[in-house]
Write a structure and sequence with these properties.
The chain has 289 residues and is an alpha/beta fold. The protein is built from ten helices and eight strands. The chain has two domains: 176 residues, 3-Layer(aba) Sandwich (Rossmann fold), CATH 3.40.50; 90 residues, no CATH class.
Length: 289
């Protein structure tokens, strides 16, 4: 978090592979803010953690409880001493006014009123997108509750569809447009994702890689990955029920992450090849006489 040394004013689009631990890290930040506020060591803070589906609310709230109970145990404080409201499913309110809510996209508690300091949009690329409820209106509206240069807003997700709100916002962040930065963490940055390649296995002749338009030597050099990492990825693809979704969940590049959804006119292998080869335009300086 070198960009935000004081952990305030954070605005980040986080594109990542599955099971990287970012969601836990973000919720630890929000729970810490809640604890400091609840203990009177920080101003009153209201935070929301928003999931893409109802069945994920309980695991997210349980994670918050683990962080909170760990602190309370060390401090020798009971939940009743600290909390005014605790519904044990989605909402905490401290006696000093701090709040932390965990819910789903589209929950009635979300909106344009009130004041928030922190928002964690979890798996926001999979929020509803209908004429009645769509992720852009939902997220932009709720984010207006967080004042500029305060608090934290994390939009964290694996990729989904090319051209959806999260994809467009991620690309804007990459180009340093707007208030949000963008950060991509691929699976091959995680050391555990390796599998010893059998003796005699020929990566150059791998049908799985050829089917998705990748050359083994090229991607090992381009992404600085070794044979065991690449073999792990190949086996992940070979055992997948849906290769496109697995590419989305374990992408080599941020381009892979947004080619899984919808019906593409051109093949995803062709699009991937062209997108990876795209370079930024050369900036020219003009002088007018």
């Amino acid at each position: 978090m070198g960009k935000y040394p004081k952990l305030v004013g954070i605005r980040e689009n986080i594109l990542k592979a599955r099971q990287m631990g970012f969601s836990s890290l973000i919720d630890a930040f929000l729970t810490t803010d809640f604890i400091f506020s609840a203990m009177g060591k920080a101003p009153i803070i209201s935070s929301q953690i928003i999931s893409h589906k109802a069945e994920e609310v309980k695991p997210l709230f349980n994670r918050v409880n683990i962080f909170l109970d760990s602190y309370l145990k060390r401090a020798g404080i009971t939940r009743k001493e600290l909390l005014q409201s605790d519904n044990h499913t989605s909402y905490l309110q401290a006696k000093k006014g701090a709040e932390l809510f965990v819910g789903t996209a589209g929950a009635k508690t979300l909106g344009r009123g009130g004041t928030l300091q922190n928002i964690h949009w979890s798996e926001c690329a999979f929020y509803p997108n209908t004429p009645i409820l769509n992720s852009e209106d939902l997220m932009i509206g709720a984010e207006q509750q967080v004042a500029d240069n305060v608090g934290m807003i994390f939009r964290e997700s694996t990729g989904n569809m090319s051209g959806d709100f999260f994809n467009l916002e991620y690309e804007r962040g990459v180009e340093n447009l707007g208030n949000f930065g963008s950060f991509f963490l691929p699976w091959h940055e995680f050391d555990d994702y390796q599998r010893r390649m059998p003796r005699g296995y020929d990566l150059k002749e791998c049908a799985t890689l050829k089917a998705i338009g990748y050359d083994a030597e090229v991607i090992m050099k381009q992404y600085n990955i070794n044979e065991n990492q690449l073999y792990w990825w190949i086996k992940k693809l070979e055992t997948a029920n849906d290769v496109k979704k697995t590419l989305r969940e374990y992408p080599l590049s941020d381009k892979d992450a947004f080619l899984a959804g919808g019906d593409l006119f051109f093949s995803d292998a062709s699009l991937r090849s062209y997108l990876i080869g795209v370079q930024k335009p050369i900036e020219l300086e003009f002088s007018y006489v």
